[in-house]
Amino acid sequence: MKKITKILFTIPNFDTAGSGKALLNLAMGLDKNKYEVHIACLHNRGNYFNVVKESGIQVHVFNYLNPARPLMTLLKKTWQVSRILKKISPDLIHSFNYSDDYTEALSARLAGIPWVFTKKNMSWGGASKHAWKLRSYLAKGIIVQNTDMIAQFYPNRKNVQLIARGVNVNLFLGGTPDQAIREKMETPLESRLIICVANLIPVKGVEILLQAFEALASEYPEWILWIVGDYSGDYGKEKIRWVKEHKLEQRIKFSGKQENVKNYLNIAEIFVLPTLGKGEGSPVAMLEAMANGKVVIGSEVPGIKDQLKDYPDNLFKPGNWQSLSNKLKLFMAATSKMNFLIGNLFMEHVKNKFSIENEIFKHDAFYQKILGDKQ
Q1: pLDDT class for 19, splitting at 50, 70, 90?
Q2: SS3 9
Q3: pLDDT tens digit string along 83-139?
Q4: What CA–CA distances, in Å, run from 97 to 10, 94, 197, 347?
C-alpha cells in the first residue's frame, strides 16, 4: 500500500484572507489519496480562520516563530518548537510566511523534517538581506512566484521552482450583474465601469489610476471608476480626500473591503492594477479579473509582467499616469462588445496558464521531488 505523505502548512495567521485562501485552495486540492494535510498558525483570530476550520483540515495553534536574538534563547525556543513538530510528525513542512524569519526553519532542522517555503514578495535587501539568505540556505526547496525572483534572488540555486499562483476559474466566471451593487455604489445603470481591486496601501499605486482617469473623465462621461478594497488606513483616506478635492465624487467610487469581489467584477469591463516599486509576487486579483472575462491592464512590474507576458500592449510604465491613461483610452473608446471579446481572450489565457489545477499539479511534483531527494 502506497504511503500517505503528511504535509504541514504553516502560516502566521488568517487575519487577511489573501494568503490564507491561497494556502487553503492548495491544501484542499491536493490528492487525498496521496496527502494528509495539516495546518499550523500562531492564533485562531481572523474571519478566515473559521473557514479553514470548517474545511475539516486539522489545525494546530501554537507559536512556532521565535526572536532571533539572544542566541541562547533562540536555541532553547527552537528546540521546544522542534519537539512539537516532532509530535505532529509531518514528512514535509511548507511555510507560507511572508517574512524573512528563519527560526521556523531551524526548528524543522532540529526535528529532522524537510522544510520548504514560498517566496511571495520582492523583499530582499537592506536589513533583511542576511535573514533572507539564511532562510533560503536552510530550506530544502524554495518556490518562487515569478521569473524576476529567480533572476534577482536565486540565479544559481538548483532547488528553486517557479510556481505561479492559480485561480479557480469556474468560481470567477462572469455571471448576471447584480444591479443592487450599482445602487449601493451610486452608479447609474447606463454607466460603464473600470475597476481596481486592491487594499489601499502606497505600493498599490492607486493615485496613478486616479490621475489617469481624471485626464479622461470629461472626454468619456459614461465611464465610472470603482476602487474595491480596504481604505481605512491613512493612504486610503488620503485618496478619498483627493477625489473630493478634484470634484470627482460622482465618477470615482470607493466600496471598502469586500469579501465577494466577483459581484463587482461582473459589472465592470476593464480591470486595472497600478502597482509600484518592486512589484508583486503573483497577484491573484488580476487572475480573478481575467477569469471573470475582463480586459486587464497592469503596470510593468514583477508578477504582473509574468501574467501579461503574452499581452505586452496591456502593460504600462509603473508610476506613469500618462502611460496608463493612453492604455485606458484604447478600451474606453471601444464598444462594450469589443471589450467583451477581448475579455474572453483573457479568460482563455488564465484557463490555460494560471488555473488552480495547474498550481496544484506543480506543487505535487515539487513535493515528490523534495521527498525523493530526502530518501
Answers
A1: confident
A2: strand
A3: 999 999 999 999 999 899 999 999 999 999 999 999 999 999 766 789 999 999 999
A4: 7, 9, 23, 30
Distance CA 285, CA 288 (A): 5
Question: pLDDT above 70 covers what percent of the chain?
Answer: 98
DSSP sequence for 208-253 = HHHHHHHHHHTT-TTEEEEEEB---SHHHHHHHHHHHHTT-TTTEE
Alpha carbons within 13 angstroms on the beta-carbon side of residue 173 total: 6
- The candidate with the shortest Cα–Cα distance to 30, out of 12, 51, 9, is 9
All three cell numbers of 298 = 497592469
C-alpha cell at 119: 517566496
Could you give the strand order of the β-sheet that contains 35-41, starting from the edge strand earlier in sequence?
A: 58-61, 35-41, 5-10, 92-95, 115-119, 141-144, 160-162
> Where does residue 176 rank: exposed (0-12), middle (13-18), buried (19+ CB within 10 A)?
exposed
Q: Are 346 and 296 in contact (CB under 8 A)?
A: yes
Q: How many CA atoms lie within 13 A of 270 on its CB side?
A: 28
Q: What is the pLDDT of residue 221?
A: 98
CATH number, domain 5-166+355-374: 3.40.50.2000
In degrees, to the nearest 5, what angle opens at C-alpha 340 toward C-alphas 335 and 343?
130
Give pLDDT tens digits for 156-174.
Answer: 999 999 999 999 999 999 8
Residue position matching grid coordinates 502566521: 12
At the top level of CATH, the class of 169-353 is alpha beta
Contact 276, 318 (CB under 8 A): yes
Task: Give the pLDDT of residue 144.
Answer: 97
Q: How far apart are CA 88 and CA 82, in angstroms?
A: 10
Tell me the pTM. Answer: 0.92
Is pLDDT of 68 > 90?
no
Residue 89 CA to residue 111 CA, distance in Å, equals 9
Q: Where, residue-wise, is CATH 3.40.50.2000 in the chain?
A: 5-166+355-374, 169-353
